[in-house]
Design a protein that fits this description.
It contains two helices and eight strands; from the N terminus they run E-E-E-H-E-E-E-E-H-E. By secondary structure, the chain is mostly beta strands. The chain has one domain (2-106): Barwin-like endoglucanases (Beta Barrel), CATH 2.40.40.20. It has an eight-stranded mixed β-sheet.
Amino acid sequence: MLVQVVKSKIHRVKVTGADLNYIGSITIDEDLMDAANIIEGERVQIVNNNNGNRLETYAIPGPRKSGEITLNGAASRLVAVGDILILIVYAFMDFEEAKKFKPSLVFPNEKDNTLT
């Protein structure tokens, strides 16, 4: 049996941009992606702490050490710059493997989204 579990989580990052005219996705500082073990194109669930919106899109890397968190395309309508988000990635794995699995949890600096 396969179960779906949290693989990666970036907890409480601040939205730095919203670009309606980009073709979908969320741009994430590549340092944050590496720390959370998220790869380019991977599906990301986004939870907006400010307004309760939840959505899914895919990750694209942003410049390192930039702290960039930009929602692109239609998703940009569900956030405002300054909103606080939780980014979650899930993985399917064998039930026994899942019991032992430890997700990558990242808690960046909330002021500028950098790793502390």
